[in-house]
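haha ok so turns out i had the wrong file open the whole time. this is the CORRECT one, sorry everyone. sequence first:
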Amino acid sequence: MDPVLVLRSIARELRDDVRAVKQRDPAAHDLSSIAIVLSYAGVHALLAHRVAHALHSTGIGFLPRALAYASRALTGIEIHPAARIGRGPLIDHGAGVVIGETAEIGDDVTLYQGVTLGGTGFAEGKRHPTVEDQVVVGSGAKLLGPIRVGRASKIGANSVVIHDVPANSTVVGNPGHPVRVDGRRPEGPDADWVHLPDPVAEAIAVLARRVAELESRLEQATGEKLPPGAEVRPLRRERGADPASG
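then structure:
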């Protein structure tokens, strides 16, 4: 492997990483490229990974691991040297992010703090997720096993995903369920988790309506007035502006 070509590739990937911060992090709109390189832990972790991955590809054993360990200690972000990461990723804040050995990440992917791309079991081979281009993974989400997350999908904060996700989908819950907003692909800010559907709450609301209907029929059949039941109220607005968008 030509060291000059490797350095050029790493420099090009670093420019893409800085571009991703400028484009997708509102807090970086007034920062220079130098300021981003010096102050963003996600950029530091990705740069260390680019170097560690290049060393790992040559068959060197200990040095890539040592570099990954030092990067984790400094940034709080753990990326295995063998993991494959595409162009223009954004690791926003980044504390607690873990990316496993056989994980594959496409281009322009956004990961928020606490995200885990983890494995299941002790089997060898492919055991970590594949995340396609333009996917957004919310804070604390766990993607486990050799699953595939389709292009331009969104994974809601604290979701646990253990099955494949179709492209252009939104997943919420534990275990994660694909859902849609108003029957179409969700749009708006990447961090707009406020207006995602809640399948558990929706199921409870359906059951509550069914119970109310059965109670009404029972009252008609017996002529007895039943005590009022509990009212199910939504915990958040289903529409309106996103309070997290500024």
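The chain has two domains: 3-179, 199-245.
again sry for the mixup
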